[in-house]
Design a protein that fits this description.
The protein has 390 residues and is an alpha/beta fold. The protein folds into three domains: 99 residues, no CATH class; 121 residues, Nucleotidyltransferase, domain 5, CATH 3.30.420; 68 residues, no CATH class. Helix content is 52%, strand content 13%. The strands form two sheets. Strands 5-2-1-6-7 form a five-stranded mixed beta sheet, sandwiched between helices. Strands 3-4 form a two-stranded antiparallel sheet. Strand 3 and strand 4 form a beta hairpin. Helix 2 packs across helix 4, helix 4 packs across helix 14 and helix 10 packs antiparallel against helix 11.
Length: 390
């Protein structure tokens, strides 16, 4: 009886024709599992898949599929940034528009009891002011997000994939509402360099958080005079601007030179006087608060990464954030198409490399041909030649 060589693993030729993704799930089940895993704990995601599609997977499998998809989308976005950097900024082609723009950070629990800061960018189209409770309020719609846990310089660079998608470089107006942190100012300058009108605005509630401790320290913590003083100062700040408030705080500083809370908060507000021109911003129809940013932190980051008992390994944070961003930006269909195409491309490359390796391994190992014997004359060595007579 003869024997044949074991073929080993092979590739089904219809895999690519059917556009299958890596793993054992159908493309639809694969997408559903990742979508569930991005929205809820992985054990619950596995339960939902079993209930919805009658497809059973384990909790580790749900985790593995979701994190692999998130990592793939993160890699896709990094590659997209590298492509954009070669031709940035593009020529303006869109009609004039006003864009709301804000960045901030939120803490998430990590493995080992540590905490990490996730930075988030939110972008939205500015709407016309509406009257709410006797005050004109400006809202934004079509909000989109970009979140990562990384240093500010890296975050600033990689966020290009979202600012480009929203056409920041083509806008006529950008209202950048932040809490005034230095890294946020650098972020705005980097992404809005091509925008004709960039208005940096100190978030009004955050300004109030700087004024409040001063009144508490001077007039008594929790006292009615302190509450009345704060209400009046914030009203003037919103409708008349910061000049009067800063002048009053400067006078208080001369009267109470050793009051640290006054010195600290006055210095902060004085440095940002140009960003507190609230009457002008409201007249221009621009927002003065970053409620959209606070909402983004809660909806995008905290809703999934700050659940009870959750602690995240650092390598798994950004892949999850990448999926949360595309879902909360209401671009899941577009994002999944990009992600799945990237996964298929990686799978084709893996198969090609493995196929080449199989071909190399299948080559017969022929014995090496021994070197031909050399003539003594060819080596230059002397030799005796025996001649026999016939």
């Amino acid at each position: 009886m003869g024997f044949v060589q074991v073929a080993g693993k092979v590739f089904f030729p219809l895999d690519e024709e059917l556009e299958l993704l890596p793993g054992k799930l159908t493309p639809h089940a694969h997408e559903c599992l990742v979508r569930f895993g991005m929205r809820m704990p992985f054990a619950k995601a596995a339960e939902e898949l079993a209930f919805t599609l009658k497809v059973e997977v384990s909790e580790p499998s749900a985790r593995r599929y979701t994190e692999a998809a998130g990592q793939a989308y993160e890699e896709y976005q990094i590659a997209e940034v590298e492509r954009l950097e070669k031709t940035y900024p593009p020529v303006k082609q869109k009609p004039p528009q006003k864009i709301f723009f804000s960045v901030d950070g939120a803490m998430v629990p990590l493995v080992g009891g540590a905490w990490g800061e996730v930075k988030t960018l939110v972008i939205g189209d500015i709407q016309k002011p509406v009257l709410e409770g006797g005050e004109w309020v400006v809202h934004s719609k079509k909000r989109s997000y970009f979140s990562r846990m990384m240093e500010a310089s890296q975050f600033r660079r990689l966020a290009l994939v979202e600012t480009h998608a929203r056409g920041i470089e083509k806008a006529d107006w950008v209202a950048a509402v932040t809490d005034g942190a230095e890294w946020e100012q650098g972020f705005i300058d980097f992404h809005c360099a091509a925008v004709p009108y960039v208005v940096k605005i100190l978030d009004f509630p955050h300004a109030g958080e700087r004024v409040n401790p001063i009144g508490q320290a001077v007039l008594g913590e929790g006292s009615e005079p302190a509450k009345a003083w704060l209400s009046e100062r914030l009203h003037h700040l919103k409708h008349e601007g910061p000049s009067a408030l800063l002048a009053e705080l400067a006078e208080l500083k001369t009267q109470k030179p050793n009051l640290e809370v006054l010195e600290k908060n006055y210095a902060y507000l004085e440095k940002r006087e140009a960003h507190m021109q609230y009457p002008l911003y409201q007249a221009q129809g621009l927002p003065i608060g970053s409620g959209a940013m606070e909402s983004g932190n809660k909806v995008v980051v905290e809703a999934r990464l700050k659940g009870a008992g959750m602690h995240w390994a650092i390598p798994h944070v950004n892949p999850m954030l990448a999926l949360r961003n595309v879902f909360c930006s209401e671009r899941w269909q577009e994002g999944w198409a990009q992600l799945s195409q990237y996964l298929r491309q990686k799978e084709r490359q893996r198969r090609k490399a493995l196929h080449q390796k199989h071909q190399q391994d299948a080559q017969p190992n022929l014995p090496e041909t021994p070197p031909a014997p050399q003539s003594p004359l060819s080596t230059g060595c002397s030799a005796k030649v025996r001649v026999e007579k016939g």
